[in-house]
Design brief:
Layout (H helix, E strand, L loop, with lengths): L26 E5 L10 E6 L6 E6 L8 H6 L10 H7 L21 E5 L11 E7 L2 E7 L1 H15 L5 E7 L1 H16 L4 E7 L11 H11 L2 H8 L2 H4 L2 H10 L4 E7 L3 H6 L4 H16 L5 E6 L16 H9 L11
Helix pairs in contact: 3-4, 4-6
Length: 336
Amino acid sequence: MRPVTQRRACDAPELGPPINAPNDTWTWVDFPDSTCDDGTPTGIAINPSSVPNNLLILLNGSGLCWDYMTCFVLNTAVHGPYGSAQFSAQQGNLAGSILDRTLATNPFHDWHLVFVPYCTGDLHAGDAVATYTNGSTSRAYPHRGYANIVAYLRRLAPTFPTPRQIALVGVSTGGGGALIDESTFRAFWPSGRMYVIDDSFPLLERDAIPGALRSAWFSSWNLAEPLDPLCGAPCSSDLSMASRSLAQRFPGDRFALLSSEQDQTVRQLLMQTASGYQSALLQMSTDGLDPTTNFKYFFVTGSTHTMLGNPAAFPGLLTWLTEMLQDDPSWASRIP
């Protein structure tokens, strides 16, 4: 793995030029300084609103990889390229999601919308080029998710300079990235209320995320770069410390975790049985989230994975999110 340039979340951000795009329609924006796993540049899609108050940034997700087998044989993370053609193909899948302005009771219907694709296999949290070997074969894999996020933020911050509310939403593995990267987003928008929603990638306690996986993620992705400013060494042995640290560090922000009790996708990734995953999820929420006043959760029965692509399928979810965004004092965790 090559050395990387450290960019701690507490550093003063460097800004680039704002993005110019028409309101109420999706526009793809290339970022030549971004990188997918195949070495090609990627970018983001934005849909500004004519109501200039609030901003939603959605981090997409689809899998993780951390060695030759997972990255190049099993292909457990989605690959690049991802550019305007790939976004155009995906646009139809946004119907019925929280990025659909016509969705009934969608609390984000008139917000500025930003879609961040995923093609780095690293929770949007890596800044390294790993070299993976299989016998005599070696291949490089750019895990540049966090570096890409910083590149996007340098232009998004001047594009949307004074949002009253900022929702940082992560779907699937993007959910873990939303939590890990939140303090970096805060550096670019130090004022305004922030609402972080992790849709279906809980940062479980200790070895509920196996130690071998945690070690591989830290070494292959340089995961310490976004996490060290937040919680330091304790996060390397217990990723749930990131959630606890965020709730304490940003008491004015609100945080949400959405999950089914036996999420089949995540439990398989973490090598958990259905009952073992459910126990770990409930233990983490009891130990780490219940003691806070600003981190709540919405759990459902079953083994489904992600909710925000079709929130109407989960009764009460859109109302619950509206309560969160309105700072409703009745907003509370829900469990079956």
